[in-house]
Every structure is written in C-alpha cells, then in structure tokens.
C-alpha cells in the first residue's frame, strides 16, 4: 500500500538560513509527486510537482525538490527562507496506474521561520 | 479562473444534526475530490467524481456521509447525525483528466465543529 512519511513534524529555522523538508514514500508502482503549502485556516496551494522529465523541479518562489527514485524520496529545499515561508508543508503521491488520481498525503511539516 | 470555492467556510453544529457542504470546482474541471483533514494530520481521500458519476469512495466514508454532483458541476457533501469525531476540515479539489489532471486544485475548505 502507498504511504508517505514526513519525519519532521516541526522545523524551526532562522530567516535567510537554508532549509530541507524531508519526504519519503512507499509504493509498489511508479508515482507522481507533489508538495503543497497550507497557511493557517486556508486550503492547500500547489508548490511544485514531479510528473516526468527532469528530476529536479523548482517553484517560482525559490523552493526546489528532487525526485530520487532509488531512495524513494522527494525532499523540499530552499537556500534562504523568509518569514513569509512560515506555513505547513505537505508531501503527496499519486500512483501512475491509478484511475482515481487520488492523493496520499504525509502528516505535514510545520516550518517556522524565526527573525 | 476563479478557483475552487467552498461554502460555508465554518460550520458549528450540535451532535446529531445534519450538515451539508457545497463545493464549486474550476469551471472546466470534470474531476472533483473530497478530502478530510483532522488536526495535525494530512488530508485523507474520501471520494471522487468524474462528471456526475461517483467513481470511488473511501472506507472513511461511512453510511452517514453522502456526496452528490448532480449535473457534473458543483458537489455537495452531507453528513447525517453528526458525531464529535466528524469535526475536521473538509477540503474539495478539482482537476482535469489526463496528465494535466494529475494536479489537483484545492478550495479553502469547510471547517466543521461538532459540539
């Protein structure tokens, strides 16, 4: 069965420092991978996704993630964080063979950027 | 593109009452999903529609839950005889079909509190 593990429930980091949010998944088939961000009392916003092609994907606000098939990981990184990046980040997978396209989410990582 | 909208944003009800939530997807999206998110957890898949057909339901969707999408546009999620364990954020998402449909766009959610 599919599962997604986000080992770090909370990550505090000082402003302008780099950050890595970890995501590992388990699946018997190939998957598509996603990172979503959730601000307080709001829905999920797509941050970036891996569907095919280059294993390194980037967002418009400086985040990047790399799909590592051998390690079944899709870690999210940013070289320099801002206060405004404080939010909860969810990793999700969707099986390529699934007709549903449904997502399996991790439990989330709360990023807190400190001044 | 007005995005996915959900109504109401917040609902407080007493145990045993019925509640209904509405989701309006992005207009050209023919797939619609419902997820439930409890405190400290990632969203969990409940059900999905392709056009007006409900094609999959999670085991989380007990007999007290029913979802409809009568004309393939908006969808409703009804919970009968609410219980305190139903307290959660209910998220709606929509997508296209095909590879583009692998990306789901989420609404702001309806936060349900059962007293």
* End-to-end C-alpha gap of chain A: 41 Å
Low-confidence stretches of chain A: none
Helicity of chain B, as a percent range = under 10%
**Content-based structural category of chain B:** mainly beta
- The coarse overall form of chain A would be globular
What is the strand content of chain A? over 45%
Overall 3D form of chain B: globular
State the helicity of chain A in percent bands. Answer: under 10%
Kindly name the structural category of chain A: mainly beta
- Number-wise, the strands of chain B total 11
Strand content of chain B: over 45%
- Give the number of DSSP strands of chain A: 12
Query: What oligomeric state do these chains adopt?
Result: heterodimer
Radius of gyration of chain B from CA coordinates:
13 Å
Taking pLDDT < 50 over at least 5 consecutive residues as the criterion, the unreliable ranges of chain B are none
Give a description of the structure.
The complex is a heterodimer of chains A (115) and B (115). With 115 residues, chain A is mainly beta. In chain A, 0% of the residues lie in helices and 52% in strands. Chain A is built from no helices and twelve strands. Chain A has strands at 3-5, 10-14, 19-21, 24-26, 31-38, 44-50, 56-58, 64-68, 73-78, 87-95, 104-105, 109-114. In chain A, strands 2, 5, 6, 10, 11 and 12 form a six-stranded mixed sheet that branches. A four-stranded antiparallel sheet of chain A has the order 3-9-8-7, with no helix packed on it. The model of chain B has no long low-confidence stretch (mean pLDDT 93). The relative contact order of chain B is 0.33. In chain B, the strands form two sheets. In chain B, strands 2, 4, 5, 6, 9, 10 and 11 form a seven-stranded mixed sheet that branches. In chain B, strands 1-3-8-7 form a four-stranded antiparallel sheet, with no helix packed on it. Chain B has no helices and eleven strands. With 115 residues, chain B is mostly beta strands. Chain A binds chain B through residues 4, 9, 32, 34, 36, 41-46, 49, 51-52, 90, 92, 94, 99-108, and chain B through 4, 6, 31, 33, 35, 40-45, 48, 55-56, 91, 93, 95, 99, 101-109, 111.
